[in-house]
Design a protein that fits this description.
With about 625 residues, the chain is α/β, with parallel strands linked by helices. The chain contains 19 helices and 23 strands. Helix 4 links the parallel strand 5 and strand 6. The longest helix has 29 residues.
Length: about 625
């Protein structure tokens, strides 16, 4: 695997491929002269131009991460995002991802290449070069422009198909192109972190899934197996028989039953069970969508006055109630004769009716203008309803915040947004989803209180400013010390330091500080393993892969029942994709269901088991 990038995502991705998937990784990064990075926008292009002026066009090699030529080679261990990558990863330093750098990195022999530079043009130019050098190479690109990404993906896939003649050469590796965005890949993990406290999730079939460790069940008490039992944890008694035994991946029913005091790892769905916002159905919510709350109360008050005047006229004059209501309306609109010669009570009621009629005119005008949208501005955003509780407060409606908001509402989680910019891109999404929004600077007193932070379930701070996120979290913790908080921080080292400090200061509260590169790396790593790879869950020192596989062409699955296709310790069929009017995943497959060639299934497998199932040569251990 070859990873090329100029920020923390490249280092995170290399570490994920090496330590989770056990792959051989070459990391290509900017030369050491660029340790002080320019601003994010245009960083790769500016840095490349700077180094091009400093080195000759020839590409040379130097030892120990040398800096005298265009490409330097080195390896070592260290932290994410700033220094050298973790041990076991080969590192190259290159001015730019050009043909010479790819030759040194061995792209012609690589299975996959990830291009995760900040600059879209740099990634596209490098992808075109790499596809020409190796048409069978699997490509993963990081692009912010999603529409352009779709066209580039189709173009590169078409080029690969033409160059390979539509065949993969029997290697079992697809020469696919996958375009990903940081915001799209990080949003599910941020949503799951706010809901459950864990960012290690798997997204498939519109669902968010997580692996949960559960202690051994007490005698006589049956444990909930969730969607599936994925593993048995190592025995707790290391001194007893089998105490040095590791976890048992994908055990059969007998192994689970005889597990004794061993805990289990089960797969379960991430779901929200608290109160939700109104869904907008019914006559009253429809009426509420047309008029603001203040105008609705004004209309209700006017109707009450009209009814009261009609009742009073009926009581004073003794006429029929319907005639009294009719005369009252005539008085309101000033189209009846004056009550000359009538009783004093009737004359007073006519004057009051005329006054109420004058008051109704501006209310009716305001109602018409609101319906026509004349007054539809930012001020028309919904405000947090009274009594709202157990909701998520989302700070920031930029690129990341908008994706997180959409994912939270897909899970039917009530959200209140806080945004300081009245022109933020996410306000249109919030208005479309009918999500309450508080406009204001979150660092100012009273803004978080307006978002009902004291009754919230969690706080998600995902603005683009680290200091704003940190200040908001600290203020929220001062208001409510046990609040679950998740904050987005750009720098991994800073995120780790903040996490440790907040956990020490509030040990009983859930705290998560994550960089976008930390959350996006698993999705990029899964794409490098192949389009069929959905994700991976670590189980102690081993790992389980989740993949979507077509049954046709796999004799271990085709024509067999779900029970017969299960191979303990290797793979297990979990769900089947359903098509038709209601596409999704069927998780309750009986063991007697026969897998058809046209079926596409989701399965859990070890690395060795998946390599065997897909017909690959084993490159890593189990």
């Amino acid at each position: 695997m070859v990873v090329c990038g100029d920020d923390g995502l490249a280092h995170r991705l290399a570490a994920e491929l090496r330590h989770v998937y056990g792959e051989q990784v070459t990391l290509v990064v900017p030369a050491s002269e660029r340790s002080v990075r320019p601003p994010v926008v245009g960083r790769a292009r500016a840095a490349s131009a700077l180094l091009d002026r400093m080195v000759t066009a020839a590409v040379g090699l130097t030892g120990n991460g040398g800096t005298g030529g265009g490409v330097g080679v080195g390896s070592g261990s260290g932290g994410d995002g700033g220094g050298e990558p973790p041990g076991g990863i080969r590192m190259l330093e290159a001015a730019e991802p050009n043909e010479s750098a790819f030759a040194v990195a061995g792209v012609e022999r690589a299975h996959a290449l990830a291009l995760v530079y900040d600059d879209d043009e740099t990634n596209i130019r490098a992808a075109l070069t790499a596809r020409r050098l190796n048409p069978r190479l699997r490509l993963v690109l990081r692009l912010y422009n999603r529409r352009l990404g779709q066209h580039i993906e189709e173009l590169l896939d078409q080029a690969a198909a033409l160059a390979s003649g539509g065949s993969d050469g029997g290697s079992g590796f697809d020469a696919s192109t996958t375009v990903l965005s940081d915001a799209d890949t990080a949003a599910p993990a941020l949503a799951a972190t706010a809901l459950t406290g864990t960012s290690k999730v798997l997204q498939t079939g519109g669902l968010l899934l997580r692996a949960v460790e559960r202690p051994a069940a007490r005698t006589g008490v049956s444990a909930d197996p969730g969607l599936a039992t994925l593993a048995l944890l190592s025995p707790t008694d290391s001194a007893g028989p089998g105490g040095d035994q590791g976890p048992t991946l994908l055990p059969d029913a007998a192994a689970v039953r005889d597990g004794g005091d061993r805990g289990t790892v089960v797969l379960e769905q991430v779901a929200y069970t608290g109160p939700s916002l109104p869904d907008g159905r019914g006559v009253v919510p429809w009426f509420a969508s047309l008029f603001s709350r203040r105008l609705r109360w004004s209309l209700a008050g006017m109707v009450g006055c009209v009814v009261a005047l009609a009742v009073a006229l009926w009581l004073v004059t003794g006429i029929h109630p319907l005639r009294a209501f009719y005369l009252t309306l005539l008085d309101l609109f000033a189209i009846d004769d004056p009550a000359i010669g009538e009783s004093v009570g009737r004359q007073i009621l006519q004057l009051l009716s005329g006054l109420v009629g004058l008051l109704i005119l501006p209310v009716l005008l305001a109602a018409v203008l609101e319906v026509l949208g004349t007054f539809r501005t930012v001020s028309s955003l919904r405000r947090p309803p009274r009594g709202l509780s157990r909701h998520v407060v989302l700070l920031g409606l930029g690129k990341i915040g908008t994706r997180v908001l959409t994912r939270l509402r897909e899970l039917n989680i009530p959200v209140v947004c806080v945004e300081s910019d009245p022109e933020a891109r996410g306000l249109a999404t919030a208005r479309r989803l009918r999500v309450p929004v508080v406009l204001g600077d979150v660092t100012q007193e009273g803004v978080l209180e307006a978002a009902k932070i004291h009754r919230a379930h969690a706080l998600l701070a995902v603005t683009s400013a680290d200091t704003t996120n940190l200040e908001a979290v600290l203020y929220a913790r001062a208001v409510r010390p046990d609040l679950r908080v998740v904050l987005r921080l750009y720098d991994d080292d800073f995120a780790t330091a903040v996490y440790r400090t907040l956990r020490a200061a509030h040990p009983l509260a859930s705290t998560r500080s994550r960089s976008v590169s930390h959350l996006a790396a698993p999705a990029f790593a899964g794409a490098m393993m192949g389009r069929q790879i959905l994700g991976a869950f670590p189980v102690e020192r081993r790992v389980l892969l989740f993949a979507a596989v077509d049954v046709g062409g796999h004799p271990q699955l085709e024509g067999k029942t779900v029970g017969e296709a299960f191979r303990a310790g290797s793979w297990r069929v979990l769900a089947r994709e359903e098509s038709g009017d209601a596409p999704g995943l069927a998780w309750d497959l009986p063991d007697t269901y026969v897998l058809q060639p046209s079926d596409r299934v989701v399965l859990a497998a070890t690395r060795r088991g998946l390599a065997e199932l897909l017909g690959r040569r084993g490159r890593t251990g189990a």
